[in-house]
Amino acid sequence: MAMALSAFAPQEIYFNKYYHDDSDSLKDSYCGYYGANEQFRSKLTAKELVFQVLKNRVDNIDVDRCCPGAEDPFFVADMGEIYRQHLRWKMNLSRVKPFYAVKCNPDPEILRLMASLGNGFDCASKAEIDVALSTGVDPSRIIYAQPCKTKSYIRYAAQMGVKQMTFDNADELYKIKTNFPNAELYLRILTDDSTSLCRLSMKFGASLDVTRPLLELARELDLNVVGVSFHVGSGAEDPKAFCKAVQDARVVFDQAVEVGHEPHTLDVGGGFSEDRFERFAVILGQALDTYFPPHIRIIAEPGRYYVASAFTLAVNVIARRIIQDPMDPSGNTHRLYLNDGVYGNFSNTIFDHQHPEPQILSCLDDSVASPLSHRPSQEIAYSIWGPTCDGIDIIAEHAILPGVVGVGDWLYFENMGAYTRCSATRFNGFTDNHEVIYISSEAGARALLNYRT
Ligand SMILES: *Cc1c(COP(=O)(O)O)cnc(C)c1O
């Protein structure tokens, strides 16, 4: 699956750098915090690098002659982006140790980089525990952060030495008592997740009126409660959700001490995203310093934050239909059919409430402006569909692209790293295992992963 970098003449790529100091939209989201200029600059360079790799690849595919599937969608994964996100985390939340949420994207190269950056892993199943352990990390760097676990998986965790796990109900405590009495337990509490994209608190979390009885039951069963955990919901909008959750966690910490436990760790879960990270970090950091003295260890379970922007997906236009608009004979509607859709990597449109935005990668219509030029262009509205026979398989109802896109052309979608491939299916016989071309726009990540330049 991993393709050797050398296949793409990396020397050419790495020295082929452009600087666009006038790219205002990107700059806007990067201003106003420490290190912003450097990060802005390296991110722009990285985007151009990714574009070159995408372009080199599709320029070598001839859809009129190629073998079946040679025009399948593929990803370019920039491990340098994950590395930059890690530095950003360290700069803004140095007190909090990340345990990467494996479910978000269990790609082996991602896990390898996380392990070498010193991060831990948040796993929710036997298979996730296995992939995390396969990186060679000590089992103490894994938390089994699923409050409702399969009994046989609890025994498996015990066998592998994965001691840290969460619970939020009494049945779970009895299960843990019989299957892994020496486990190190985190009581997961309910949060206000009403502003998040993917709400989790209707499924998991103990409310504050049941935390004390649960802690007492754990004590009676002679189980070891080492901390409290929460999750404010994935794609959280409101940083204040963290404040309330940290305050509530303090209450439950005190209850645990009163009942006779010795809690030492707070787990602040996931919910961080790329664009709002600094604002969240300031508010969370202040809440932590207010309520949790320095000897309390703080961990987190970020998923989306680390990987969303690292993966870019290239997709081929396999069919097109131009329909006369009966209401407006001068305007046609354009439908594009791609070889990936909501049953594939665009599963994020359904499960993760995303709206992926197409951009043109290569296009036979040479009046089309490339992202690297500033030519004026003709804007056309398209609806964009997936390859299966199901009508639900639509990626975007209304997308504007700068020119006429036809059969055989390529589109690309940025920010396709989180909750995409991992929830893809093989419905209608399309693959869920697309090739990934790994590159790194950062020398640091290149060195950690042993990529050639
Ligand atoms: C999904 C999940 C995460 C990761 O959430 P992100 O929003 O992607 O950061 C972390 N912890 C738990 C328990 C989860 O279920």
TrEMBL record:
SUPFAM superfamilies: Alanine racemase C-terminal domain-like (SSF50621), PLP-binding barrel (SSF51419)
One Gene Ontology MF term: ornithine decarboxylase activity
Pathway: Amine and polyamine biosynthesis; putrescine biosynthesis via L-ornithine pathway; putrescine from L-ornithine: step 1/1
Entry-linked Pfam families: Orn_Arg_deC_N
Cofactor: pyridoxal 5'-phosphate
Active site positions, chain numbering: C389
Annotated TM spans: none
Function: Catalyzes the first and rate-limiting step of polyamine biosynthesis that converts ornithine into putrescine, which is the precursor for the polyamines, spermidine and spermine. Polyamines are essential for cell proliferation and are implicated in cellular processes, ranging from DNA replication to apoptosis.
Protein name stated in the entry: Ornithine decarboxylase
Organism of this sequence: Elaphomyces granulatus
